[in-house]
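for the writeup, i need someone to sanity check this before i put it in the appendix. the sequnce is what the collaborator sent (i think, or maybe the updated version? ugh). structure was predicted straight from it, no edits. if anything looks off just tell me and ill rerun, i have time this weekend
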Amino acid sequence: MEIHPPTHPISGWKETVKHLAIITAGVLIALALEGIVTWGDHRVLVREAVANLTSELQNNQKELSGLFASLQKERQQFDHLHEITGLVLAGKPLTNESITLDSHGAEVKNAAVTTGQITGAFGYMEYSEVRRYADVYDLQAQFMRLQEREGQHFSDVLALIRRIVSADHPNAETVERWRASIDVAIAGVTAREQLARQLQRRYEEILAEH
């Protein structure tokens, strides 16, 4: 905003007050307009952030929905392996037994929430709304950490399979260790499923608001 001085000498206090009032009004109007523009920019930033978050959570929800059938299959495979340990401990051959073990994880994203933090969009949202997003992404992070840990248990079972099937007479200690690893992996499948279903409910709740 530019402020121009009077084009003629000011004579008297009334004219002085008049010019001061004009200048003050101009400054206030300029500040008000600037505030409106800034507020509009912030609302656009918030709308874009919410749109990104909604899209990402919808995709994460779909990704998680496809996990449950894989977890059921994985549990059945572990159960079958557990039965095989009983055969091995009983000294029975495994010539007619097939061993299959697959693991599938859910790849859920958090790019939208990271972007919202970087751009500062969360600073212009209501606290209650920010808290809802924080809660669902915190739970999502817990699920990803659990999934990563259980991946190690899966690897432990897989590593022992090779030792069991390649040995003519695997010792009982090795088989018992294998069985214990299978038990841990089965418990991990249950834990992943429970946390995944809890996360799925959180997705449904927050998406129902948009």
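Residues 13-65 form the longest helix (53 residues). Helices lie at 13-65, 67-89, 111-119, 127-166, 172-207.
thx in advance!!
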